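From the shared-data thread, chain only:
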Amino acid sequence: MEAQSEQERILKVFADEIAALKERGGYQSADVIALTPETPNLDALLAKFDKEHEHTEDEVRFVVDGRGVFTIHGEDDKVFDVEVHPGDLLVVPQGTWHWFDLCEDKTITCIRVFESKDGWVAHYRA
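Structure, as tokens:
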């Protein structure tokens, strides 16, 4: 219950920014993901993110707390890392192969914004 109320508080604090993102990008929904070393089944949860995948919609993240690294396959098959910190907004365009890892402290809180109501759906590279 406490985690849910913290997520609701974060969505309320950033409501204006979320509304602007939705209007500008045509996004439909938002949620909060909060990961810490105490998160139950953290390794299993991270296993979904740290394998190369893509999405049929943009992956939009606003970092509220903590940090992590998105590794992205760019043009000409170049691979690069983007370390995100509080206050960063990252948009990984649809169809872009990437993966995500937490930094050493294994802590991040992000607002996730989605085009569909289905939320986070990954398509993994075979």
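The two ends are 38 Å apart (CA to CA).
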